[in-house]
């Protein structure tokens, strides 16, 4: 399950980004996961819960925004849902030259900090 290594990297990166802001706890980490990124969102959530143990993110939650895969046909400029497994033929003109617009994302988009209690 490669989601555990991804979750560990998210925990490490979020902790590093939070450190310059002083003694604060990370309350949440927001990530975007594309439909074609090869990451199962539920497995990532579970792995995050494991990876955050005994770290600065021990109480943090993971907010996952799931991004659907979309493509644009080069021939007729029609945007369409790709689906899983991906189907890259244009449903309007049946053209085979398409450009993937979204669906491969795997990125941290935000970190929510909470003041450390005194």
Automatic annotation (TrEMBL):
Residue sites binding Zn(2+) per the record: 73, 76, 90, 93
PROSITE patterns membership: HYPA
Binding site for Ni(2+): 2
Keywords: Metal-binding, Nickel, Zinc
Top-level taxon in the UniProt lineage: Bacteria
Keyword Zinc: yes
Similarity remark: Belongs to the HypA/HybF family.
Function: Involved in the maturation of [NiFe] hydrogenases. Required for nickel insertion into the metal center of the hydrogenase.
Listed name of the protein: Hydrogenase maturation factor HypA
